[in-house]
């Protein structure tokens, strides 16, 4: 795990902190037809793979680092005894190692990338700290220039012997990450460099290092003796290259990441940096929201809040001053009068908050007296390179400024004039970075700078060094705790942070939870939460609840961010603001042949951290990339397998067209933890294979291959996805119970190689050319061969025919296409011609290896429609097969409505509002069967199976639809004395039927549904009334009826009745055997839909018993016309 230089290792380790250690699990398993064969490489020390490539014969080359003495060079290969770089060549099936090479000097080094040319020769790049790193006699750079240098070596593909080796670097560190070679043997590398004198080929090809390291892009001639081109891409933030491709036309492409917002964008899909340099927390730092509106692509340096109106916030940025008047949600530039955009630090007058001061790095201090609307210089006697400005809170006209050349400057007239205030400051190193004023005793000042923390007790007239930490340190920040001014916090670059509880007389290191390797740019402690301290660091924000004794990082969102400034809301202790370096966005840049001009370029990202680590170029010049995103607004494309971020960090796979101007495909990939895409390859069939590592317990594993869930702290993953097909062709985990990380992937004709490193000791190795068991040490190189992804496939259907009749039948039909293969079920995709809008081909999400072919005749006229679908599998080796599709559509005829029946009486008579009716006819449905609503429905639908009924133009609730019968309920809103009824199917209406309309239409339901004979009734004990189970005279009975008309309280059409509170407006009477009954209850039937009536009544005492005693229902003076009876004893 040493292949990444320290800074790069720290960055990726921070991502790993999202992955928690978990219990062990069983070794890798394999799925039917597709196999995974893992194997350990290395020895008993540290061994890691960071790069892989294959030659024209399919042989595999791996490169990385190894400190294992057992991993020895083979005969004929380069064999530097102390070298940490290893390169191995294996047979195409992994059954044997063909040769091993060792390269390096007496100090640390690592290979980070490898490639192979058409002849099979091997090119490797990496970094070295060795002053004796062996180079060839004709090398472009034979000796190291300082720090860690890049190297480029060419090895013979036959035996691993050294063809040439050169260094490439400046006086600081170089970190190469990728290598490519063209047909002429010209090698291109990229990575990043801190060296301002990195060798470039032409004047003006190196930008200013204003925001961190720059991306180096260097090309060497075929002998490694000279540069063909070399440039360093820089901006106002850092720029890093992680992938490079040499194109056939001599141009080359870089992919990586950058926090710089000023990179030149040409023909871009995304023209501007999308992350924000300000954040807002409403819960005391436990979570953060980016203030992106108006601040995208703008890096924040310092913040202040108007103490009288905390909604008013100001931030100093590299683009001037920005102002928010709504608590940090939206921002606008406030730069009128500023002659430099390079603002560094802000101060606000606490007594007159519309007075502000800003320090700039090039034109000194500026002052505003109108809340930032206008600025004017306040520089008389002041050096132009101001770092920080602060003021006396009790006498705000007293100002202190720090400068990079003149030390501390003081003004007593609100910035009109300045004088030196350096007495006691080291005269050789008068560099003061920050000053903090004691808010209760403003004459007490503390200053952080080179060599010491200083204290003044006389308002800056004299200064005394304090022994906060080592005397040769650079102190970056100092802060007086506003709630307890005897407590002072200070931080240094190299030895960590300190605090004093006695006004600086003594100091104690702050180590509990606050690493000494962190750089703290600012401390903040307010008055409304005593003991609470925030620290802005190069690793996010830390917080203490006990005056700095212990520290935690309350939120993960900003853990990968450099935070420079903090501001605390004076009225609400939970509201905190921060500003800092932009989160990186992915970046892709296409250079011309000379490496001096940018042909196309684009950013890729959202408001969080987004970086590209892997890139592959398609045959058509399309650019495919992978990496990671923590942005909720990361750009994805419609229909992508995953469009929403699932955890804190997800991997992504995205495709640009060959101009970088459009993004045809983009998907996220991940689960609930951290997921990082590290490498990408293109399979012969065009499917993309992405590899990386995951810490997600819920990583989306598909295809029945590998392990799930996660077994160790991280696992390798392999994901296969086609930009032109829905879903993932395969996603699988590879690993054991330890830490497993994939750093490289290579596609083969029938599978893939995945390489990286592991600490898992429980994998059972089955790769013949590697060890079956863990070899020992801190890590082993891990190589996994995935095979069987391609297999002879046989399509079971090559033609499909659909017949659709427009006479009320369903207008959609579905059939399937399947394929059989030795690998089992294969994922299928179908490409439908653009002019066949009636046809769809969709993978069955419920069954692998099945493609659903759907036709929809909606809007089509009668006729025959023919086309063909191109059916294929994302798996390599499955040939595209045309499947012929024929759709035969026959003419439609409208439905025929013949009769309207009262549903209870089953007679053709007048209808009433809220009456269940039956419509008889033909052509309501083409297919057999019955359509009914969802059983859980609480309101009846007005359309079933594309069938609807209107009565006087109002849709009627539908209970069921059959081919010749519809059960409906008339709307309650019907008025007048006539009603027109129309049945509509698929837009075709029946001839209308006109019926009489009356306020009520009473009817009783019968047991056989005929409308005549035995009433549907329940006796007093709840049993059904029958001839053999008669009701007793003088006792209650329940009848079921309809036709009561309007109810109070009113019921909506088709409403499910849930209570017994709705009663007819019309009078309800019941007669049994000609005698009137006592009606205890008459109302809407609970549990039924509106329109049905329950009647609870008493059988008259004087009624003559019998098996068929007649019953008559009268509602609103109108009697039921049917012959209905009950049994009475």
From TrEMBL:
> Region (Disordered) spans which residues?
1-34
Membrane-spanning intervals of the chain: none
Superkingdom of this protein's organism: Bacteria
Q: Where is the composition biased (Basic and acidic residues)?
A: 8-19
Q: Which NCBIfam families match?
A: Soli_cterm
Q: What is this protein called?
A: SBBP repeat-containing protein
- Organism (species): Paludibaculum fermentans
């Amino acid at each position: 795990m040493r292949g990444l230089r320290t800074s790069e290792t720290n960055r990726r380790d921070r991502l790993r902190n999202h992955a928690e250690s978990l219990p062990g699990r069983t070794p890798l398993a394999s799925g039917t037809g597709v196999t995974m064969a893992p194997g350990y490489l290395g020895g008993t020390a540290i061994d890691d793979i960071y790069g892989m490539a294959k030659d024209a014969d399919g042989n595999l080359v791996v490169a990385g680092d190894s400190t294992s003495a057992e991993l020895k060079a083979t005969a004929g290969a380069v064999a530097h005894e102390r070298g940490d770089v290893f390169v191995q060549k294996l047979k195409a099936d992994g059954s044997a190692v063909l040769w091993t090479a060792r390269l390096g000097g007496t100090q640390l080094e690592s290979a980070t990338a490898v490639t192979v040319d058409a002849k099979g020769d091997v090119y490797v790049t990496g970094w070295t700290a060795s002053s004796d790193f062996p180079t060839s006699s004709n090398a472009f750079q034979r000796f190291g220039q300082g720090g860690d240098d890049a190297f480029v070596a060419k090895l013979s593909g036959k035996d691993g012997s050294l063809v040439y080796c050169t260094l490439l670097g400046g006086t600081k560190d170089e970190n190469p990450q990728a290598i490519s070679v063209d047909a002429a043997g010209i090698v291109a590398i990229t990575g990043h460099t801190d060296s301002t004198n990195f060798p470039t080929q032409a004047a003006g090809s190196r930008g200013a290092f204003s925001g961190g390291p720059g991306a180096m892009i260097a090309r060497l001639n075929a002998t490694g003796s000279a540069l063909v081109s070399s440039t360093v891409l820089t901006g106002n933030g850092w720029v890093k290259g992680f992938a490079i491709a040499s194109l056939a036309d001599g141009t080359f492409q870089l992919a990586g990441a950058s926090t710089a917002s000023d990179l030149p964008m040409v023909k871009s899909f995304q023209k501007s940096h999308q992350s924000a340099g300000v954040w807002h927390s409403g819960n005391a730092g436990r979570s953060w929201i980016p203030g992106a509106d108006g601040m995208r692509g703008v890096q924040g340096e310092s913040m202040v809040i108007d103490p009288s109106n905390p909604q008013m916030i100001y931030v100093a940025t590299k683009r001037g001053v920005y102002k928010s008047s709504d608590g940090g949600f939206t921002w606008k530039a406030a730069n009128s009068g500023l002659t430099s955009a390079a603002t560094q630090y802000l101060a606000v007058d606490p007594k007159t908050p519309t007075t502000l001061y800003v320090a700039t790095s090039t034109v000194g201090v500026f002052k505003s007296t109108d809340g930032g609307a206008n600025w004017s210089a306040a520089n008389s006697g002041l050096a132009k390179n101001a770092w920080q400005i602060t003021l006396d809170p009790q006498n705000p006209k007293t100002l202190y400024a720090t400068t990079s050349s003149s030390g501390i400057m003081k003004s007593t007239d609100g910035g009109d004039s300045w004088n030196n205030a350096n007495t006691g400051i080291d005269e050789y190193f008068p560099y003061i970075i920050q000053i903090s004023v004691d808010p209760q005793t403003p004459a007490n000042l503390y200053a952080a700078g080179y060599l010491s923390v200083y204290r003044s007790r006389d308002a800056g007239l004299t200064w005394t060094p304090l022994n906060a930490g080592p005397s040769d340190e650079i102190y970056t920040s100092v802060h007086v705790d506003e709630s307890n001014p005897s407590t002072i916090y200070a931080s240094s670059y190299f030895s960590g942070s300190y605090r004093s509880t006695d006004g600086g007389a003594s100091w104690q290191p702050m180590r509990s939870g606050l690493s000494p390797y962190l750089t703290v740019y600012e401390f903040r402690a307010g008055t409304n939460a005593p003991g609470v301290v925030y620290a802005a660091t190069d690793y996010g924000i830390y917080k203490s609840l006990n005056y700095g004794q212990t520290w935690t990082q309350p939120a993960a969102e900003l853990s990968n961010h450099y935070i420079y400034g903090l501001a605390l809301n004076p009225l609400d202790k939970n509201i905190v603001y921060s500003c800092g370096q932009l989160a990186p966005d992915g970046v892709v840049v296409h250079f011309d042949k000379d490496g001096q001009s940018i042909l196309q370029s684009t950013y890729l990202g959202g408001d969080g951290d987004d970086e590209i680590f892997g890139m592959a170029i398609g045959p058509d010049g399309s650019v495919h990339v992978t990496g990671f995103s923590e942005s909720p607004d990361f750009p994805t494309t419609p229909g992508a397998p995953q469009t929403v971020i699932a955890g804190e960090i997800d991997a992504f796979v995205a495709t640009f067209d060959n101009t970088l101007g459009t993004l045809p495909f983009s998907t996220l990939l991940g689960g609930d933890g951290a997921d990082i895409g590290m490498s990408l390859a293109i399979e012969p069939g065009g499917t993309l294979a992405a590899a990386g590592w995951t810490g997600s317990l819920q990583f989306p594993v598909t295809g029945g291959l590998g392990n799930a869930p996660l077994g160790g702290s991280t696992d390798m993953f392999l994901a296969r996805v086609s930009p032109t097909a829905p879903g993932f062709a395969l996603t699988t985990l590879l690993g054991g119970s330890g830490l497993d990380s994939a750093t490289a992937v290579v596609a083969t004709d029938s599978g893939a190689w995945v390489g990286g490193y592991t600490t898992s000791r429980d994998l059972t190795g089955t790769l013949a050319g590697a060890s079956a068991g863990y070899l020992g040490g801190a890590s082993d190189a891990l190589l996994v061969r995935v095979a069987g992804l391609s297999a002879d496939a046989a399509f079971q259907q090559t033609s499909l025919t659909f017949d659709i009749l427009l006479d009320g039948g369903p207008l959609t039909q579905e059939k399937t296409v399947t394929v059989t293969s030795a690998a089992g079920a294969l994922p299928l995709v179908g490409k439908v011609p653009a002019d066949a809008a009636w046809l769809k081909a969709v993978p069955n999400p419920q069954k692998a290896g099945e493609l659903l072919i759907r036709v929809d005749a909606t809007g089509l006229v009668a006729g025959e429609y023919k086309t063909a679908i191109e059916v294929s599998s994302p798996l390599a080796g499955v040939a595209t097969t045309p499947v012929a599709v024929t759709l035969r559509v026959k003419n439609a005829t409208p439905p025929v409505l013949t009769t309207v029946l009262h549903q209870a009486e089953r007679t053709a008579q007048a209808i009433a509002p809220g009456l269940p009716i039956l419509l008889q006819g033909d052509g309501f449905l083409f297919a057999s069967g019955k359509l009914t609503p969802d059983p859980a429905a609480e309101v009846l639908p007005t359309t079933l199976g594309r069938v609807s009924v209107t009565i006087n133009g109002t849709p009627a609730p539908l209970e069921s639809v059959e081919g010749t019968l519809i059960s409906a309920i008339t709307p309650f809103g019907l008025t007048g004395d006539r009603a027109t009824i129309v049945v509509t199917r698929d837009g075709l209406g029946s001839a209308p039927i006109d019926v009489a309309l009356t306020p009520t239409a009473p009817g009783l339901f019968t047991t056989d549904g005929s409308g005549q004979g035995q009433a549907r009734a329940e006796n007093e004990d709840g049993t059904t009334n029958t001839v053999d189970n008669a009701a007793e005279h003088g006792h209650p009975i329940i009848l079921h009826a309809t036709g009561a008309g309007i109810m109070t309280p009113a019921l909506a059409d088709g409403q499910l009745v849930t209570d017994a509170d709705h009663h007819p407006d019309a009078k309800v009477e019941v007669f049994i055997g000609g005698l009137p009954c006592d009606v205890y209850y008459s109302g809407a039937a609970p549990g039924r839909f509106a329109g049905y009536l329950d009647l609870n009544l008493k059988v008259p005492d004087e009624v003559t018993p019998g098996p068929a005693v007649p019953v008559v229902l009268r509602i609103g003076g109108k009697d039921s016309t049917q012959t209905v009876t009950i049994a009475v004893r």
